[in-house]
Specification:
The structure is a homodimer of 155-residue chains. Chain A has helices at residues 3-40, 44-55, 62-68, 76-85, 107-127, 133-154; strands at residues 60-61, 89-93, 101-105. Chain A is mainly alpha-helical and 155 residues long. Chain A has one domain: Orthogonal Bundle (Arc Repressor Mutant, subunit A). Chain A has a three-stranded antiparallel sheet with strand order 1-3-2. In chain A, strand 2 and strand 3 form a beta hairpin. The radius of gyration of chain A is 20 Å and the shape is globular. The interface between A and B is large, with 52 and 52 residues.
């Protein structure tokens, strides 16, 4: 019995799974980028920033916003400046600490993001439409287990 | 019967699946970045470039290399310059067209990448170790179906 071969096989199998997950993720992300740009002349970091602000009707501080956007990166201040010029967001003094700047979507910003978000959901539903609902549910559950496994290791 | 509500529910479910997939992907990628940097002072684009060259013992042209690295981006020429200075790769004239530059790992480059690749497989196996082999296999198959679904839409 060659234990080392078995360990190597196990590793290869995990690696293949990870590379397939990464491929799926990059494929979908690439499509979302293309569609956002093509239909709304919007970048992915801009879309993600809008999504964060949309969820927080009361607004967010620049610090909280930056923390939430670590995933996609992008220059938060630069994107916020641009969105302010486009009339999509406003900067206000925070209600509890006037020295803190709070960022908030304008009604126009909320309206335009809602339109993009609906389109985005449609693209995703289309891209994932080739697998049946039962399999999508299985995939969702298995990815939940994966997330738990990874999070336990990261801690 | 409200069809629109059902459509919206279907979209939400696909969106939730995509966001969970993206979260898993970013979590694992983040861990790989951290570990590469911590153990080998290596960036992810540098690791990916080495991986491509390792697979092609005969070497690759700069153009082919750039095409294969679209996923992670990074400045291919800058990374290649750095790796050449570190004695990890050499630039040669291509055997069939002397005007074309072919890039190839040195024996040192191959040795050092092999060491990193082994560690990388170990990290991935560790991160994915919290789910049983049968579930990993199911996940692998379902992601295969997802890849097919996405690819069919992209075409």
């Amino acid at each position: 019995m060659d234990y080392e071969t078995r360990i190597a096989d196990h590793d290869h199998e995990a690696l293949r799974l990870w590379l397939r997950l990464l491929t799926c993720s990059k494929l979908i992300e690439g499509e979302v980028r293309r569609a956002l740009h093509g239909e709304f002349e919007c970048t992915l970091p801009r879309f993600d920033l809008l999504a964060q602000l949309y969820r927080e009707e009361g607004g967010l501080s620049m610090g909280d916003l930056s923390k939430r956007l670590m995933v996609t990166g992008g220059n938060v201040t630069g994107i916020a400046d641009q969105l302010e010029r486009d009339g999509m967001l406003v900067r206000n003094a925070a209600p509890l600490d006037r020295r803190q700047v709070q960022i908030q979507l304008t009604p126009k910003g909320r309206r335009e993001f809602a339109r993009m978000a609906r389109a985005h959901e449609g693209w995703i539903a289309g891209l994932l439409g080739g697998i049946c609902e039962a399999d999508r549910r299985r995939l969702y559950d298995l990815l939940g287990a994966l997330k738990t496994s990874v999070a336990a290791q990261v801690r």
